[in-house]
Amino acid sequence: MSRPDVITLFLLRHAAHDRVDRVLCGRMPGVSLGAAGLHQASLLGAALQRHAPDALFTSPLERSRMTADVLGDMLNLTAQVSPELTEIDCGEWTGREFAELREDPRWLRWNSERAASRPPGGETMAEAGERVLDFARTLRRRYPNGVVALVSHADVIKAALAAVLGLTLDAHDRFDIAPASISTLVLWEGGGKVVGLNAVPQP
């Protein structure tokens, strides 16, 4: 049975920067891509070319905008900056090294109870998921039966996918969202499904 006004969303994690897996960057400024990250972004763009997205949106953070700029050049699209796609607000943990955070009991609780906890002074994962899915529903109305690419961040993408899959956010660590990966979501009025997860384009 066909559904009207279906939208296909490519949820793209930004390409890698030199602090990935070392620092909780959150919304800190000045986190940019190096040569390796720019190469990853070009592989991402090549993988998307055959899908010919109708539009491209990006988180306002520098690492996402740099990824989106590469994609835009390859897809002949102008990346539109959307605050709804920004990283989870990590509050006072922003910019801290993971090795340091592992000594903080609040960090341990955050990672074991994502459905019920928040970073100190920050945003819950559920709040991030709600804002990105609200934005996705707006896009469905703007691009009925369209294809749209969204450049965002790992936990934001995980929150959106978990909501569609009916998973508790405490299951956030059961799947990965790698840098420069593609996860594919199809949405329609009142529902949706995940049709691709964490696909990393290869050379």
Structural key phrases:
single chain; phosphatase activity; six-stranded mixed beta sheet; alpha/beta; two-stranded antiparallel ribbon; about 200 residues; Rossmann fold
H/E element string?
EEHEHEEHHHEHEE
Radius of gyration: 16 Å
Q: What percentage of residues falls in helices of 4 or more residues? A: 25-40%
> What is the spatial order of strands in the main beta sheet?
4-3-6-1-7-8
- How many separate helices? 6
InterPro entries: His_Pase_superF_clade-1, His_PPase_superfam, PGM_Phosphatase
Protein name: Histidine phosphatase family protein
Organism: Plastoroseomonas arctica
GO molecular function, one term: phosphatase activity
Report on the structure:
The protein has 203 residues and is of the alpha/beta class. It has a single domain, classed as Phosphoglycerate mutase-like (Rossmann fold), CATH 3.40.50. It is 35% helix and 19% strand. The chain has six helices and eight strands; from the N terminus they run E-E-H-E-H-E-E-H-H-H-E-H-E-E. The protein has helices at residues 35-49, 62-75, 98-101, 105-112, 125-142, 154-165; strands at 7-13, 23-24, 55-58, 80-81, 96-97, 147-152, 182-188, 191-199. Strands 4-3-6-1-7-8 form a six-stranded mixed sheet, with helices on both faces. A two-stranded antiparallel sheet has the order 2-5.
Summarize the structure.
It is built from six helices and eight strands, in the order ββαβαββαααβαββ. With 203 residues, it is an alpha/beta fold.
